[in-house]
Every structure is written in structure tokens, then in C-alpha cells.
Amino acid sequence: MALDTEKRDFKIVGTRAPRPDGIDKVTGRAQFGADKSAPGMLVGQILRSPHAHARIKSIDTSAAEALSGVKSVITSADFDKASNSFNQDALDNCMAREKALYHGHAVAAVAAISPSVAKQALKLIKVDYEVLPHVIEVEDAIKPDAPIVQECRQAADTPAGLSQNITHQMSFGHGDLDAGFAKADLVIERSFKTAATHQGYIEPHACLATMGSDGKADLWCCTQGQYYVRELCADFLGMETSQLRVTASEIGGGFGGKTTVFIEPVALALSRKAGKPVKLVMTRDEVFKATGPTISTFSDVKIGMTKDGRITAAHAMLRYQGGAFPCGTIEFGLMSAFAAYDLEAVTAEGFNVMTNRPRQAAYRAPGAPVAIYPVESVVDELCQQLDLDPLDVRLKNAASKGTKSSYGPTFDDIGLVATLEAAKAHPHYSAPLGPNQGRGLSCGFWFNFGGNTSVSLNLNADGTVGIVEGNPDIGGSRASISQMAAEELGIPYDNIRTTIADTSSLGFNDVTDGSRVTFAVGLATIKAARDAIQKMCKRVAKLWDIDEDAVVWEDGYAKPAGPNAGDFEPMSIAEIAAMANSTGGPIAGHHEVNADGAGVSFGVHLVDLEIDPETGHTTILRYTVFQDAGKAVNPDYVEGQMQGGAVQGIGWALNEEYIYGDDGLLQNPGFLDYRIPVASDLPPIEAVILEIPNPGHPYGVRGVGETSIVPPLAALSNGVSRAIGHRMYQLPMSPPKILKTIKG
Amino acid sequence: MVKVVVWGSLRAATNGAATVDVEAVNFKDVLVQLEQKYPGLKPQIERGVSLAIDGTIYRDAWFTPVKPDSEVVLMPLMVGG
Amino acid sequence: MSKIHVTTTLNGDQVEYLCEPQETLLDVLRNQLDLTGSKEGCGSGDCGACSVTLNGRLVCSCLVLAAEAEGNEIDTIEGMADGEQLHPLQQKFLDHAALQCGVCTPGFLVAAKALLAKNPNPTEVEVRYWLAGNLCRCTGYDKIINAVMDAAAEMRGA
Fold first, then answer.
1. Interchain contact A252–C (C-beta under 8 A)
2. Which CATH architecture has domain B2-76?
């Protein structure tokens, strides 16, 4: 649905409207995943593998089943075979079948009358493990003699001769690399390593499952996509989709980590067997061990540049591990790596490899942060060696409308140049720096998506409006959706209530991901509002006994189109709604679509930091985020996404990592040793919003949620490198690692 | 005839060609013709693909029309976080 | 194993419950007393989402045994508003959009209230260090700090 051609002065879109769920959240009334209970409810708990890799020879649950207070015990035998291999992987990840594939992999579960009985029951389950050799790091997993994580998982079109752990290989790009490098005055080639991180949402996964003897089930869970949860759980339990109703609770953070299932099928299976509701809540330890961290990577990047700053050729070799199952994130890494640049010769190639680690899940722009980090680092090193201004070099090579992107399509209107120019003009860029201080910058990018969306907009008899949509609100989208509807209908924002439907109450919706909600649900809401307007005008035309196209909608009123249409008093929504029953029945607008036309969002981050030469500690002095939002429907929430993503990226760059022992066991599954940023680590984060309209949305909206995690990794690495006078090639740059580099 | 741009690692299935020609009028047609003409593309198409048509990415949109002068780029299926 | 009988004052009201010896105050608040405003983010005192005050002192309720509440005064997020009237901190959090998912918000509000009771005129750095025991993953803390500083100013009558 294209950008509206007529320019308009927005009255509500673009304002900082208060969020509808605000009172509930500041009073503690809002119900999150673990906040619901049911009469007769049992407590579910999961038994997890203590080994990084082991064959499960047998599981004896008899003693657990016999324990008083235990109502059901399940293993993988209690699930159906999934309908395709991707779903089977998701199911095997929820409950191990033949092998425990990572430390913490679920092997069995119990439902009991209290947590202490459940805990006792788990201890009574006897699992006969045959411990196998394990492999953890990318470089080890690709060796020909590496332990094989899973047999026969290599894609049919993978070149022969690679380790069986490599699941597939890909490349993107165009042009003649050799000729390009030959034209360069300076070519730099470097290798980089990044560790796995976790989305770090403060709310652990939690659900309440109730399955009746008639095969119908209700599931309450914190999720980014209740329709997808329904699809997977119905598949795993051999149910018709319509028999399972999934209700999304308020969600305490997701960032991509709650776009799949971990405990939900387990809770349903326990409930089915016990004939009672089962509540299952993960501990923080379980969240780290057995949900979906990011990939870890080992990459090489080679870039050639002329002395006046033009990139002549660029090559990246990216190697990702996504845990013990095939993982497609390498594709987004390869496509995004050079997306910011207008290049004649570019190739990004790489592969995914399996390891004995938990199955990767998406984390805000999956694959992109760790692909763009090495690219922006090498560009910065080239700028340093050629003594060129890093922003000018980005501007000189920036992609813009008409650029053939490194991943294939030609760009339409994009905001990269605007964000770069805004950064250059900002006082931050010219602020003086002191000793041990450095300034870093990086571009960042995410594709953004549309996707399957259903919206229903219902008129109440008093002229207020209820909007029903199907996407859990992870960033303030209910406010933005209400704002867009209020704008279209011409009624006050407070007259609209937007609620999130369960799977039985509305048509299908794709998961909340891909920065798609303000774009796609917004677009569908606008269309639904216009649909309702058309229906209201039709009713009024009938009442006035004139042609339908003689009635127009303006500022919340149905009016005659012109003096020729007749002399009628304008009618408000309240008046039209009041007579709905007598003029044909209830009035509603709706729209169902598989939305396309999402606009990419580019961002630039600037950071000033200071390194303590004695401890290697990094203090962030100043941080500014520049990002193109297309059209900022609610600036508060756009700023919130920019600031939140930046801080996640800061944590990724400076401290966060999964630490494994030689035994393949995760050593830091808790917030004490997996150190995410706290308030005292940070200065204020300035957010500068740019608006280059997306031609694919009526108001020009671009998704903004994901791009902001992409630039911080290289921005911080570049800043630290300049502050200490040595380049850094590994993340996280924790104090011991910085000290080691300083000391040589 | 529509020109379809094929990404690097798929070119092994198109005899090294970065751009191939198919007779197609819409999204679905493009995929059907590609599979028929270049059977080596089948595994990837089955895993899932998007098509970028004149700069807009379509994830799963069979009836989206494709013109002879459209820029059509084959891409992996997109997911986010 | 018999349960322990506890009598305590909760948000100003007298309350009684039975608990197992190992149960935490957080367990009892959420599972017995239906006060689900305090959240379990980690169970080990690292995230602050379960923050309450015990005799006016800021504590993680996941680190307090339910039995320890005997004879003491507990204040949770549910007691912060006065009927329909929001506490200035709660109102400022809304005005400044200082929450996104909201799961850490009760903990932050209880912690900020405890700070302002002790120090009505904190600097920004003092606010950041006081709140370092409360993790937020959504906001980057920026708008939270602004909200607390603004609420402090309003409460001082500034």
C-alpha cells in the first residue's frame, strides 16, 4: 500500500500519546506470563542434561511417577512426529529424543502438586547417558575430525568435502573482486571473533496450559507470536489448530528470543496426561542454558580503498555457529554485511556450523550486528591508516536511491546519507577529546518486514472504537496503532481502545518481529479505518437519500461532498453508530493482508569513551543515535527503541558473552556473571530521529526496532581502538582483554 | 522473458550465470519456471525464498505481477527478531 | 514438615499466612497472596525485579525468607498508589515513557521511592548508582532516570 500522495498535517500521529497499558504497568496490575493461576493447577518442572553431548540410552520414570503428589511425567515419547524438519528441530529442542545435544537440553518433565514435590520427582528420574565427545567453538566444529553433532543435516547443495557439522554455505555479491582490489591504494584484511550473547529479557519464559479430556486446550504464555505458538504446539501434540487457543500475556521483553517455543509444548503434554492445568516457569539458569542465544562467529573481512577514500572492493568470509541444529541466520549476516555501501565489486560468503550449544533464536536484527561489526572495523582501520575522516568516507561510499545493494535488489528512497549528514553536523562529532579518550562510529541497517496481518475495527454505540489486532506489544505499538486509527477517523485518541486478540478471536497474524508491527499492523489499521469510513458514508448516503460518492469523511464527520450534494448537517461517528442497528446492523472495518513494501532503516551511532589504562575499564562518556524512522508515529517509542537497542549493543560490545568450560558446560548462566549494562554504566543517550518516508506505507513508516543494535558493536570497537592506539579484533572488549591488548 | 538475479552460491545450479531468463507473469510463475529450468535450485526454493521485485521484497506473494522489464532478485526467506 | 505461621503488615494491612521454611517472601507474595506485581527475574538477587521494602529498607524479596516477614512491615508496588491517586513517581514514569515492556517497572518504582525517602535531592549520578541494582533490558535507562529526577523535583515542591 503506497505512500499517500496528498501531504497532510498530522494531528495525532507524531505526538507523544500516553500508552493504554501504562496504569496497569506502573501499579503492578498488568499480567505477565507467570502471573496467571488456575484452580487445581499443578507445577511443572523440567529435567535437563548435565552433559554437553550424550546419547540417551534409556529413561526410567517409574520412581518419579510413583511419588505421591506427582500427576504426570513425560519424555519425547509423549509427542507426535512434527510435520516438517524445521518443526521437528523445534520439537527436539523442547525435549531431547535420541541425544542430549547441549548442557541443559530438556530430557523429561514432571507435573506435581507443589514445587518441592516436583523437585523431588526430577531427582527420581533415572537417565542412562552415554557421554560423547563435544564441540563448542566454530573453529573446532569445522575440523574434519570434529565430533559430529547431528548426522545427515548438511544441505543437498553444499559443496563436497566440508565437515558434516557445516549445514549450508552461501554467497552474495557482484562484480570482479580481483580487479577491484587491484585498483586500491591500501588493502586491509583482518579476522574477528564474537561470542554468543543472550537477549537478556528480564521476564523468564512462563506459561499456563490447560488441556481437557475433549482434546481442547487453552494456553496462556508470554510470547511474541501466539499464532505461531499455536501452529507449533498443535503440530507437536497432534491437535487440530482450532482446538488450541493461545492467549498472549503482557510480555516482559522478547527481542526475538520469544518468537518460538521452549516450554509450551511440554506444559501442554503434562496437562494432557495429568488432566489438570499445569504452570511452567523457567528459572533464570534455565533461560540462559536452554533458550535461544545468538550465534557466535569467526570472520575474515578484506576491503580495498583508494587514498581519497573510495572503496574499490570488499570481501567477507563469515562463519557462524547457531547451536546444535541447522540455523539460517548466516543468510542475514551475509546480506547485511555490506548493505550500507555502493560497491562495484563485493562478495560476502560464509556458512553455518553445528555445535553442542543451545539452539539459536533471533535477537534483534539476527546475524547483522556481528556481520557489520568486522566490516565497519576494517573501514575504520583504513580511515586511520589513510588519515581520512571516517564520516566523510562513509558519505563518499554510502548507498542511496538507485544503488545496487550488496545483497541484490536496487534501493528505493533510503535514509543513510541523511543520517550520516546529521551525525556530521551534530556537536557531538566535533566535541574535543582528552587523554585516553576515543571516538567511534558505525553505520547499521536492517531490512524490516511486513507479513501476514489481520485487524478488526469495531464501532461502539457511543461512537468510541475498539481495535482488535493480533501482535503482542513489545515496544508501545498499541499506542501507535490507536494513534493511526484516531488520525484516519478524526476522533480523539482516548476514544480508541486497542486490544491484542487470542488466536480464536481474530484471523492469522505473523509473529511480532522484523520491526513489522508499526508498519504492517499500522498499515492494516489504516486500511481497516478507511473501510469503516466507507461503510459509514454508505449508511449516511442512504439516510440522506443521495449517491454514495456524494458523501465524504472529514475530521470525524460524514459530510455532503459539495453544495450540489445537498444541504445536510454533518454526522459524527457517535451519531452514525447510534443508528447502526436500525440502518443495517453493526459497523466494522477490517483488513487482512500479507503486507509487503517494508522500508529498510539505516542508523549511525557516535560514541565517545575513555579507557582506564590501569584496569582496562571503559567509561562511555557520550552516546548519540541517529536513525531513519520514515515517519515517527510516536516519538517516545521510537526514541525508546533507539536507546534500548544501543544499550543492548553496548553490552554485547563490552561485557556479554557465553563462557564455556573445557567440559562443554556453561559457566555463567546468571545475571551476576553474564553482565548486562546497568544504569551506572551509561550516560544519557541522545536519540536523533530522521524521517525519510518509506514509499511502501501510507504515512511513510519504517520499522525501527532492530537497526539500533547493529552499530554499537563496531562503534565501540572503533572508539576503544582509537583510545588505546591498538586495534581490537574480538568481542566482548571486557577490561582484561583491553588490558592485554594495551600491554601487547 | 524476465531476468532473475541469482545469488552467488546458487550460481552453481545455473551453470555459473548470475542472471537467468524465465517466461513468467507473476511471483509463483517465476519460482515454478526456475525449478523446471534449473533443478539444482529446487532445494533452496523448497527451503524458502523471497523475491525482490523492483526493489520491494515479497515474502510469499504468488500473484504479484512481474513485468518483462522488472528487476527480479531471488533472496532467502526473511525472518526477524 | 509442618508449615510456619507468619503474621505481618503488608502495605499497611495486617496479613497472615502459612509458609514452608525454604519459601521466599517473593514466593508467598505471588503464589499465596496474589500480589503478582513483584516479579521473579532471576531468583538470586541480581535483577531487582522483586524489589520491596522491609521496614523501609530496600530489599530483593527473593532473598528474604517468607518467615522473616514475621512482625515486620512490608511494602510492595501494590501499595504505592493511594487508591486512584498515583504516586508522583508512577505518574512521571508514564509522562516520560520510562517503560517499554514494563516488567522491571515495579522494581524500579519501589527502589526509586526508597531512594527519595532517604535522599530527596539526588544528583543524576546518585540516581544511576542507586538504581544499579535494577536491571532493565528495554529502555537503556535514559527515560527512567529522567522520570526519577523529575519526580524528585516535584516531590520537593521545586
1. yes
2. Roll (3.10)
